[in-house]
Amino acid sequence: MTWIYSELALVALAAMLSPTTLSFSVLALVLGDRPLRTGFFFYLGALTATLGIGVLAAFVLGDAAASSDPSSPKTWVAVFDIVAGALVLLYALRLWRRPSDPAKTQAMIDRMRKLATSPAVAIVGAGAALANPGGFIPLALKALSETDPSTTEYIVGWIAFTLVSLLPLAIALLLLAVARSWTMPKLQAVQQWFQRSLKTVAVGLLVVLAAVLLRNGIAGLT
User: Fold this and answer.
1) Cα 201 to chain centroid, rounded
2) Taking the CA of residue 132 as centre, how many other CA atoms within 13 Å lie in the half-sphere pointing to its CB?
3) How far apart are CA 154 and CA 219, in angstroms?
């Protein structure tokens, strides 16, 4: 059972360090005159959307992926792991080889600058669409289901995954609330670090996650 929790932890970390999600989150904070307002509603949108998916899955999926023998996953789960592992690996390679696109970066900045002056409901909607864990959600849903949880345990586990995946934005909001003048320059520095180094960290983590998924899937089929 330990390997299942390890996989879930890797998925949460990969979601937390997703370059796209982090970039949108930081831009939501640094581009407006009211960063705490924008960041709060952006976080609220991501939080409610992600939690809603997990609560629904607790009743629809539940423990469907759990096996009577934790060391031998169900066939469909093993196949899922192999396909997911291959997709994660392809994504990591694409991310690594993709050159920086100034036009795309500028379009992202323009979009988030406009969002900073939008009504609260628009910011919440943008957070739900841009700051959720995205493609990591199916992986987390499956891994959590493999732990053979009750409905309550599934919901609690999903809350933990959601909070971890959104942790950078939550910490930034807390720092803004406590010390805005100190935090804003740090966020701008973090934005520059994203452009230089985050891709390397994210790719490395994705490759490890892909290896774990492929290993689990192949072991399950053999």
Assistant:
1) 14
2) 22
3) 25
How far, in Å, CA of 160 to CA of 23, rounded? 22
Torsion of CA 155, 156, 157, 159, to 10 degrees: 90
Q: Residue 98: what residue type?
A: R
Q: Give tens-digit pLDDT for 8-40.
A: 899 999 898 887 788 888 888 887 778 889 989
Among candidates 160, 141, 130, which has minimal Cα distance to 58? 141
Question: Are the beta carbons of 22 and 130 closer than 8 angstroms?
Answer: no
Counted residue by residue, the chain has a size of: 222
pLDDT score, position 136: 92
Helix axes 180-193, 19-30, angle to 10 degrees: 140
Residue 164 has a CB neighbour count (10 Å cut-off) of: 19
Amino acid letter for position 160: A
Q: Which amino acid is at 60?
A: V
Distance CA 49, CA 61 (A): 17
| Beta carbons within 8 Å of 161's beta carbon, 6+ residues apart | 8, 11, 12, 15, 54, 133, 140, 144
Pairwise pLDDT comparison (107 vs 70), residue with the higher score: 107
* 3-class state of residue 113 by DSSP: helix
